[in-house]
Amino acid sequence: MIQIPRGTQDILPAESYKWQFIEKKLNEIANNYNYKEIRTPIFESTDLFVRGVGGSTDIVNKEMYTFNDKGDRSLTLKPEGTAPVVRSYIENKMQHDVTQPVKVYYLDPMFRYERKQKGRYRQFVQFGIEAIGVEDPLIDVEVISMLMTIYRSFGLENLRLYINSIGDQDSRANYNEALVGHFKPSIHEFCSDCQTRIDTNPMRILDCKKDRDHELIQTAPRMYDYLNDASKQYFEAVKSNLKAIGIEYEVDYNLVRGLDYYTHTAFEVMSDAEGFGAITTLCGGGRYNGLLELLDGPEETGIGFALSIERLLLALEAEGIEIPEPEGIDLYICTLDDKAMEKASHLIHSLRANGISCDIDYKRRKLKAQMKDADRKGAAYTIVLGENELSAGNVELKHMATGDSKTVHLDELVTVLEEER
Ligand code: ATP
Ligand code: MG
């Protein structure tokens, strides 16, 4: 028997309403913040991610689904959304768009070859936003506030927002030097990845999952002490304006984004709900001032975040929040014989054309089984069609919740149901 690929999941019909509910809400909130949807391809040139995500990252080194197509081009299923959006921005010369900054969102499946774990899939759906074309602490605040609005709108409470600044390029250069000085003498005590990172990307040592308890990580120099005045001012403005709109945060000086093009604001949202499990990160984001130029684009800056629906669902579950089940159909027509069944199949055609949701039993079961089926389908009303009803042209319209029923002429069914709704 062929099975589903490891690390993927079917969203079954009984569960898909949860996804639709979440997606609808995300679309609404994005519109409320005036972000427009962008849709980029499921696959891109491999080079886009090697350059745009960075050759020293786990994503590029270990996690990409890369293949050659029949034209021998190297393509990669997208592992993240920012590089494709930036590629599209550059290719479509969006810096010349009349509306600036360019504010977009995406809701797309992403692919990473990861070890399967609760909350970690090989295909998962990310919602992300990007605001490109301004460098202003106030838009950083907008991006963070939208993120928190999203989580709050689902009723989540056990959230922690961590923020940090990694400063501008100058600040980072000084900081990197200090980190090398701090770690170099004892780097042999760290994992093999960190022994490479010290040369390629020292900041990422702070982010290492294996060495997080090493004493030298606790005592490492703090980025904050290496921020120049402009970077400090930027960070202070982000913090004070978050406060002004009532968004609580904690500063985490070890929160870093390892790549050169990341600057200033970095943030993460964690769940501290009991029962969430080992993975507690719900979302990550930050400012990327060097990314557009790195991809041969204009000198524009951007900021964004990405969250996965899978982890959002885990957080909801951990806090015992249920997504409302969808309403059932308006009408279920039970039929007593083949002739009635045929008539019913015509009737539902016109009912549906009038916007009334309805169904019949194609399995042609006994009346009792049909009634059960109507119940399972959440039908608000039922009618029974048989020889008598067909000859008289009248049916008993039964309201399932109350058991009340009234006689209705078949020609009036649409009007009556419309009134009842
Ligand atoms: P992690 O440290 O958990 O691996 P990451 O740093 O790789 O996360 P990002 O690339 O910043 O994550 O992606 C943003 C968000 O996407 C994460 O915060 C998480 O909600 C979600 N995410 C990342 N990888 C997966 C995955 N394999 N399955 C489900 N969700 C994921
Ligand atoms: Mg990861």
Structural commentary:
With 421 residues, this protein is α+β, with helices and mostly antiparallel strands. It is 37% helix and 21% strand. Strand 12 (331-335), helix 12 (338-353) and strand 13 form a beta-alpha-beta unit. Helix 1 runs antiparallel to helix 5 and helix 5 runs parallel beside helix 9. It starts with 15 loop residues before the first helix and ends with a helix. The mean pLDDT is 94. Residues 80, 112, 114, 119-121, 124, 126, 279, 281-284, 306-308, 310-311 line the site of adenosine-5'-triphosphate.
Summed up:
With 421 residues, the protein is α+β, with helices and mostly antiparallel strands. The protein has helices at 16-32, 46-52, 58-63, 82-91, 137-153, 169-183, 192-200, 215-218, 229-244, 291-294, 309-318, 338-353, 367-376, 387-392, 413-420, and strands at residues 36-37, 43-45, 66-68, 74-77, 102-111, 123-132, 159-165, 250-251, 262-271, 281-288, 302-308, 331-335, 358-360, 381-385, 394-399, 405-409. It folds into 2 domains: 13-168 and 228-318, BirA Bifunctional Protein, domain 2, CATH 3.30.930.10; 331-420, Anticodon-binding domain (Rossmann fold), CATH 3.40.50.800.
